[in-house]
Amino acid sequence: MQFEVWAPQADRVTLQCDGVASALERDPERAGWWTGEASAQDGSRYGFALDDGPVRPDPRSRRQPDGPDGPSAVVDHGRYDWRVPWPGRALPGAVLYELHVGTYTPEGTLDAAAERLGHLAALGVTHVELMPLCPFPGRHGWGYDGVALWAVHEPYGGPEALKRFVDRAHELGLGVVLDVVHNHLGPSGNYLPEFGPYFTDRHHTPWGAAVNLDAPGSDEVRAFLLGSALAWLRDYRLDGLRLDAVHALADTRAYPFLEELSAAVDALAAESDRPLFLIAESDLNDPRLVTPRSDGGLGLHAQWNDDFHHALHTALTGESQGYYADFARAPFTALAKTLTGGYFHDGGWSGFRGRRHGRPLDRTRIPAHRLLGYGQTHDQIGNRAQGDRLSAALSPGLLACAAALTLTAPFTPMLFMGEEWAAGTPWQYFTDHPDPELAEAVRRGRRREFAEHGWAEDEVPDPQDPATRDRSCLDWSEPERAPHARVLAWYRELIALRHAHPDLTDPDLTDIKVAHDAEAGWLAFRRGDVRVAVNLGKETAEIPLGTRPARILAAWEPVRGPGEDGLLRVPAESCVVLEQE
């Protein structure tokens, strides 16, 4: 078997494979690369020693059976017999579901999660968006401190388990999206700097030195990241990738890495004859991110839209701390602006940032499905001090309003696991660092962060306490009990409506009309012949819709269409979707 590794700074590279050492030779065709052959098969353990140093795992390791610090293992992807032919499932018209493997079930494995995929098929979602799967220290964690970008976390089940999960999802008609992290690696188990200039001091990020996208050696670093992204899509038959915090990718080159990545993914989609897509997380509000390359953009296919979340959250809760402050001044106005313009911050003043922020999105050129809309995500729940969901503070009626706004808005909707039944479990920040010094640093940092916002230390869960993770696991007995069962039925009804009515997947932002009365607590908008009205207030709202005949499509509480006076009367903390001729 052929082995190779990029180690441009080494004078000698030794391969250790199944206990046998052999020297690698410089590749005459590729500067900095070392190659050699050794007897190996699927499962063989191996690693590389640089200049007679300790044996390190392969930077391109496909499997780390003993964790990030152990040897790599050979993976023969051809051994897996895929059961389900899969033509792919594109992003337009999709409904995504964000899922964390380690807490979706008490077992916390891909196989256990696969057994629960029937619930998602019945719910009506189209794609499962898995939070990061790359190996990280310990057993449990969010996954954003992964260090082996080509491998699957072994406690989740490793590579074979991911293939079984994807096969089962495809069998049920569900696409699979994976959250990948290119902007940093975790603080423990990261040996890339020993192999080459994977990081640069030219730029700094919240995690330290930046991933090297533009300094000397960056061609190979880019190839490393591109290869990893394409491997997930090709070897595991994934349908798309979610790119974590792309605003933290420091890149000054004329050909941006994200543009290079989008071109490579589009080429793979053409080669494999199935749709593939990239979804970015970005706080820049720069529409060039999702503008096609042919029009001068970077060509990513979609991005998370935090502005919609923030506007919705402030309208529902009245919270105004931190970045919510910009939206809390007039939450209904903010919500109306995002529903019609995509971004709230589109070049105007942001008090939270103390400067102007964003850039207008051209509604005539960019379809609304390129923005993801959501009422809850792992970030917006887990980065609260106690990981409390909206269900911890809002009535079932207000949760129904949040669902109606999310699932009938023009954006591609995304749910966070358990949201669909108003899960009573929190989703808290948890880690499992074996290094006691790192564990204590994370514990202190978390408490210090929230102490600055007025939380007492004993009110902030200990990330290292196994109970913090256990509390965050979904309780699968809830969907069968009140009030969870009613909320779940409501989500299913709304998702079915979205699939059945073309007006609800029309990507034209220019066709949306919004009206609201903040004092009365209601907001209504029109999408073709469909009308959506939500009443967040404590009293019945009278919403002027006109006297044209109307048919109720879905209502949280019993509602009649507009009377002869043209007023739609919506009960307190309730919502309705109707069709008007």
From TrEMBL:
Site annotation Transition state stabilizer: residues: D379
GO molecular function, one term: 4-alpha-D-(1->4)-alpha-D-glucanotrehalose trehalohydrolase activity
Superkingdom assignment: Bacteria
GO biological process, one term: trehalose biosynthetic process
Main location: cytoplasm
Family per record: Belongs to the glycosyl hydrolase 13 family.
Stretch list, region Disordered: 25-76, 453-472
Localization terms from the record: Cytoplasm
Keywords: Carbohydrate metabolism, Cytoplasm, Glycosidase, Hydrolase
Known pathway: Glycan biosynthesis; trehalose biosynthesis
Composition skew (Basic and acidic residues), residue ranges: 53-66
Active-site residues, Swiss-Prot/TrEMBL: D244, E281
EC number: 3.2.1.141
Protein name: Malto-oligosyltrehalose trehalohydrolase
Catalysis: reaction(s): hydrolysis of (1->4)-alpha-D-glucosidic linkage in 4-alpha-D-[(1->4)-alpha-D-glucanosyl]n trehalose to yield trehalose and (1->4)-alpha-D-glucan
GO cellular component terms listed in the entry, alphabetical order: cytoplasm
Chain's gene name: treZ
Annotated substrate binding sites: 242-247, 306-310, 378-383
Record Pfam families: Alpha-amylase, DUF3459
Residues annotated as domain Glycosyl hydrolase family 13 catalytic: 94-448
Keyword Cytoplasm attached: yes
